[in-house]
Model the fold of this input.
Amino acid sequence: MTETTLAEGDLLAAVLVHVDRALDGMLATVRRLGDERVNAPTGLPAGNTAFQLVRHCCGVLEFWGGRVLADRPIERDRAAEFESAGTVAELVELVGVHRDRFRADLADFDGPAHPVGPLRERDLDRDELRTQAGILLHVYEELAQHRGHLDLTADLVTAGGLS
Done:
């Protein structure tokens, strides 16, 4: 678990508390599932496994933090995230690496400033993505959404999938 110290009015620290909670919650869920169920299908058509969802969240941190906020070259194969498989230990390590890298990518964070890296064409007209603060909140939005998705996935897998 990572601790973030909050100063009054510090948006970055406040959002990082929630980012950490989302990531820590995901890790708790995959640890509960264990290696035997982290790659188990849900029974839903085109449903994702727990491993794939957490792997995708690492990709979210890499793209939005590395590419858009830090303008760092990245290598990401988004489609491969949804085909990935592995162990809980691999996810724990991967989340640790991406959490640390995301924090490093925020070293020059300036909430009201425009993102320093390029946005995708499809994101250019999204008002909420015009500032670094907006990007940071979008990252949390994605993690929170996928945390809920992961919990539902774990419930389905634990219950034996859909009949």
